[in-house]
Amino acid sequence: MANKIEELKKDIAELESLEKQVTRQRNKDILSIELRKLVSEVVKLEEQRSQTTLPAAASTNSLGATNKRYEIKLNNYAWDQTSKYVKFYVTLKNVHNLPAENIKCDFTHKSLELKVLDLDNKDYVLRINNLLKTILPEQSNWKLKTDMVIVNAAKKEVENWSHVTEWEKKASDAKNLPPPDSDKQADPSEGLMSLMKNMYERGDDEMKRTIAKAWTESQEKRTAL
């Protein structure tokens, strides 16, 4: 059983690493669901193991298993906005039964981090970085409702947010890029070149470096052939 628990923990660590790398929300949701399943399985196995130990050590092992909590990253939330706030709705069953000190939310001008501690022996964390626009940390807050935490991020400027993060907006803008010229569509390579050129001209420094690197590698492969 110990080996199985260790293998599951390795799987959890690998999934957490993958979750940090993926950018598409659907993939993040899939990884988050799988993480929860694995964490639940580890908790059950550790409880079973503690029940099979010697009576003298049973209470100590049980206490250790109870005190060890796993961090689960939250990716699912709903959001809307008013003229003053961008509101994030995070659903967690029985969260309203926690003491107030178990819920923390840290704000910066361009990010927020919600922590829900020791809910059914698990810690839940929602991190949102690179917010689309600047917020006011000192005027931001959170509220506890039945099975839900509402995070209110105070806007610095009274303006509408089209997306939550800068990355989401860039991804949306990329989808709306104009198609290649119709007279060049017969040649796929020319169409791709036109698209990359358009993205390069519109992109930020990071996107330009990425495209330039891809172009260089492509040219090197052609030369090698």
Automatic annotation (TrEMBL):
What is the predominant subcellular site recorded for this chain?
Answer: cytoplasm
Start and end residues of each CS domain = 72-165
Keywords, A to Z, come to: Acetylation, Coiled coil, Cytoplasm, Nucleus, Phosphoprotein, Ubl conjugation pathway
Q: Does the keyword Nucleus apply?
A: yes
Query: Which top-level group of life is the source organism from?
Result: Eukaryota
Q: Name one Pfam family in it.
A: CS
The parts of the chain that form a coiled coil are: 1-48
Stretches for region Disordered: 169-197
In its UniProt record, a GO molecular function of this protein is: ubiquitin protein ligase binding
Q: Indicate what this protein is called per its UniProt record.
A: Calcyclin-binding protein
Q: Which species is the source of this protein? A: Exocentrus adspersus
